[in-house]
Amino acid sequence: MNQMIMPAPVRRSIDVKVSQKRAFEVFTGDMGVWWPRSHHIGETELKTITVEPRQGGRWFETGQDGAETEWGRVLVWDPYGRLVLAWQVSAAFKYDPKSS
Fold first, then answer.
1. Number of domains in the chain
2. Model-level pTM?
3. What is the arithmetic mean of pLDDT over 55-70?
4. What does the pLDDT look like over 4-27, one tens digit per residue?
């Protein structure tokens, strides 16, 4: 009998020399500033990235043409304490709302 092996979650930590509040603000509010410009799935060049500041909010990119391409959802929004994002992009680099 074949058993499905579930991959382990990706966990990464980085120490930064700012307050936890400032790090959270930059990570969530300025993601389009620090995210690599080449890493996008929209049809046109990346303009910005938005994380809507609420549980259930969208996580998406906006292209230079103004089109929005979803990446996922905000699962946990606890300002300055915890953020959990659902990456809903398939292996083919397309938004897939059924994945999480």
1. 1
2. 0.82
3. 97
4. 677 788 888 888 899 999 999 999
